[in-house]
Amino acid sequence: MNQPLNFSLMASVSKLADELDAQQFPQSALYVIATPIGNVSDISLRALKVLNMVDAIACEDTRNTSQLLTRYGISKKCFAAHQHNERSVAEKIVQQLQEGLRIALVSDAGTPGISDPGAQIVHAVLEAGLQVIPIPGASAAIAALSCSGFLSNEFYFVGFLPAKNKQRETELAKLSNIKATLVLYEAPHRIIETITSLALVFGSERKILIARELSKLFEQIHRCSLGSAITWFQQDENRQRGEFVLLIEGAASLSSDEDSEAERILGILLEDCSVSQAATLAARITGKKKNTLYELALALQQKSDIAKDENH
Ligand code: SAM
To answer: I want to staple 215 with a disulfide (CB 3.0 to 4.6 A). Which of 39, 140, 185, 261 is the partner?
Structure first.
């Protein structure tokens, strides 16, 4: 049953808030604060405490942050810190910190610096010998990974791929042998093109997790193969709307000895055969799984195509 937040729970929250008052929040520090990625309740008590106590907040977009602050009854001086003014704002923040102020840094949603502005400001503050304190919380990548079900313990954060097909596919070819789960961010207007490139470069068998609108009303988490992902999007156009994290299962694992032997055999076969024929023959020669060899053959073919392109 969906239990309402009851009085004793609220009392505990209030006690925890009191405990926060006893904690140290140094002056002359930049506080990098994660904010919700959709559900406004996904913010920590510590984040609220710091937002309420700092002297000013550097925001990717002051209007978005003001809405969040209003929901929590916080009134605070905000100023813009986005990708177009990050350098000059970094200098201003350093000055303010040197005067003993506490400044918070937030982006529109999630964790600053993760496919969001913030890195240059953090860099400048550290260069000036000042303190940077993270206030952890939501990040779309971590939320998606936490429910992926993929067994790899490793992940490789890619973020946004290039917008143009050719550059995107060149980038994907470089990533195709990575065994860690790949983490991508994508916008709705490019989701179909990106899925098409993924299936083309990685092959249709690889698994994908599509995490759409995480923590929001129309949240959807769908697991399928790259080959069937386009059909899933086409079945309902609403599925192409909103924000997406894409997780791609890492390249199937061969041991490194097996890898180089399989690569050698595939390299020879690819001189005369298609990717599919090379994988079939290599599977007969090595006794390894055809799908695994197909992925390896595809990656080798892509690499050799890129090398040919670059030589022209
Ligand atoms: N800094 C943010 C973080 O920590 O997740 C990411 C900012 S990046 C500019 C925005 C992208 O993150 C979106 O295009 C989408 O790919 C992903 N994203 C953000 N919120 C999301 C959500 N609620 N559900 C799915 N993806 C989301």
So the answer is: 39
